[in-house]
Every structure is written in C-alpha cells, then in structure tokens.
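Retro notes (design track)

What went well: tokenization of the new backbones is finally stable.
What didn't: we kept losing track of which sequence belonged to which structure.
Fix going forward: every design gets posted as structure first, then sequence, in one message. First example under the new rule, 122 residues:
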C-alpha cells in the first residue's frame, strides 16, 4: 500500500524558511540545497521546502489554502506551545482559543503558511 510521507511547502526563499523551521522544530535538515530543504519529522514524515520559482509544473496559485497541524498531547500542551511560540515572536494568526475540537492556535511561517497546534482526537 502507498502511504504519503512527504509534505512540501512552496516557499520564496528556502534558506529563510529553513532558519524558521530549524528554530521551530529544534532540528537540522537532512537535505539543504539552494532550491530545496527537507526536515525529517516523527512518524516517518518529511517536511520539504521547495523554492516556488523552481517548482515544476508551476503552481496555479499561492496563499494559505491549507494548514500543517501539530497535534500535541498532555495537559495544557497546546497552551504551553502557544506561550513558547508567542515568546519566540512568531506571527500569531489565531490567538489561543477553544473550538469544537478543543484548544488551538495558528502561527504563520515566513511565506504565510498556517501552522496550527491542537490536541489529537480522543
């Protein structure tokens, strides 16, 4: 069976984005080239950052039409991440709030990609 294992975000500057994600994820990329950077993630996933001008075929639009979600476990884990990321000066798109699925908030990366933190489904 084929399983997805790579998330690719189109970015203006992979070097700038790599610095952001290096700090956010507290890890080094496995691949760092002028037009592509890849960070291995837990669970066998990889986060790829591809220079938008080099993507083939070119994307038809840019903007935040989706989110990368970080599900965190533990009492007050979402609130703790919120305080940590806010303290780092990350741009907050949605303040810590309670939605149907529990506590959550959203920050933006340098290209405006939405990064949501929430709890896993119970």
């Amino acid at each position: 069976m084929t399983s997805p294992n790579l998330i690719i975000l189109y970015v203006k500057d992979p070097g700038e984005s790599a610095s952001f994600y290096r700090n956010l994820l507290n890890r080094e990329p496995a691949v760092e080239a002028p037009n592509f950077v890849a960070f291995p993630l837990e669970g066998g996933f990889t986060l790829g950052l591809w220079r938008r001008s080099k993507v083939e075929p070119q994307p038809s639009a840019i903007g935040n039409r989706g989110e990368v979600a970080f599900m965190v476990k533990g009492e007050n884990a979402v609130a703790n991440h919120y305080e940590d990321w806010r303290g780092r000066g990350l741009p907050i798109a949605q303040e810590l709030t309670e939605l149907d699925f529990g506590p959550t908030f959203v920050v933006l990366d340098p290209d405006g990609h939405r990064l949501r933190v929430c709890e896993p489904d119970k």
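Added context from the reviewer: The longest helix spans residues 14-25.
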